[in-house]
Amino acid sequence: MSAPSTTRFCLRLLRRQLVLAVRRPAEMGNPLLFFAMVVALFPLGLGPAPEALAGFAPGVLWIVALLASLLTSDNVFRGDFDDGSLEQLLLAPQPLYLGVLAYIGAHWLVSGLLLSLVSPLFALMLNLPAAAIPALVCSLLLGSAVLSLVGCIGASLTVGLRRGGMLISLLVLPLYVPVLIFGSAAVQAAVDGLPVAPYLAILGAMVSLGIALAPLAVAAGLRISIDA
Amino acid sequence: MPSGAGAPLLAASDLCLVRGGRELFRDLSFDIHRGQLWQVEGANGAGKTSLMRILAGLSRYGFDGRVQRRAPLLYLGHHSAVKGLLTPRENLAWHVSGAGDWSDADIDDALARVGLCGYEDVASHTLSAGQHRRVNLARLYLCRAPLWLLDEPFTAIDRGGVGELEAVMTAHVAGGGAVVVTSHQALQVDCEVRSLRLGAGGAQ
């Protein structure tokens, strides 16, 4: 019996992660609920004037999306570390790079993608001009992929620690900064009627760089965490 | 295949491990050939699991010596690696998917052989600890890797299951494979058991 092709193995891994996520709908809904709750707090804190809210909306939406992604990234490898599945993944005769990419892809599909798709609703809550909504969705789609890639690096390094939640924020938040800058700038540009494409191109470049390099870092982080 | 023929499946040389200021073993050298059954023995805390993880390649730092692995291996550790939200069939299908393409019939057959017939489609979190272990051990019926590293495989397994497990190990060794097993109980098998004793006097 020959080993199955790597593509099939990764697709199986992706499907397994998605099945696990779908069977825990509460955990999938948590980041969305968090997003909705925090967005609802801003009018209470900043005052309900629509013009003021519209001014803050690009930054607010992006910061909340970033925190929602951070909230979920801690759990990417935790369950598999605790029950020994991660050891078996490391020992599987398949490249760990692609296996890790499947984990990251599953995380993006159940957090970043969903968040991007419901973001127009939250944009309306903050009175973001309708013209900027396509830019918001596109920038979140690209940006949240980078957030997943970087968040998984933090998750792989802290998975061996009982309480890695705080540490992962310290590790990962500085790396989120460029995504936040270009993501919110894309939305702001759309609000001001300026071209959005350059910002999206930079976010796309970050995704490409992340896909090339982040799985290597995650794989190394997992080997270290399993070894400890 | 005669015992000891050909290159070893796994060669360990001069293994030395210090944990918490205590030397667990030193100058541990052995070759594992096809057709051999090794039992690692030692008191609790003697370093059996640490040794197994070093042999499997999960521990790569923190010890001295060299391990050469020349064949695919199967490592079953303390954790069952069974996901409570997946069914036994899904769990097993996932576990073996890295090493081979197996049909649903193969998976069901392996589950039936470990006594989980009728439990294929229930969520694993409703199963007992012993049944989790059995899902894990079903891999032995599907695995083609010549070298098995089994860390305390008898944990939570009932008496009948232990007998079956010993029979599988015997068959694997007779078929040209090799098994390294840690266990506190004497193995009832029809082949020579090589003992690797970890403890105060070092390895023998």
Structure description:
Chain A has 228 residues and is an all-alpha fold. Helices cover 83% and strands 0% of the residues of chain A. Chain A has one domain (6-227). Chain A contains nine helices and no strands. Chain B folds into two domains: 10-71 and 146-197, P-loop containing nucleotide triphosphate hydrolases (Rossmann fold, 3-Layer(aba) Sandwich); 88-133, no CATH class. Chain B is built from six helices and eight strands, in the order βββαββααααβαββ. In chain B, the strands form two sheets. In chain B, strands 5-6-7-3-8 form a five-stranded parallel beta sheet, with helices on both faces. In chain B, strands 2-1-4 form a three-stranded antiparallel beta sheet, covered by helices on one side. The chains are: A mainly alpha (228), B alpha/beta (204). Chains A and B meet through helix 1, helix 4, helix 5 and helix 9 of A and helix 2 of B.
Span between N and C termini of chain A? 34 Å
Give the chain pair forming the largest contact, with residue counts: A-B, 29 and 29 residues
- CATH architecture descriptor name of the largest domain in chain B: 3-Layer(aba) Sandwich
Supply the number of structural domains of chain B: 2
* Biggest pleated-sheet summary of chain B: 5 strands, parallel
For CATH, the homologous superfamily of the largest domain in chain B is named as: P-loop containing nucleotide triphosphate hydrolases
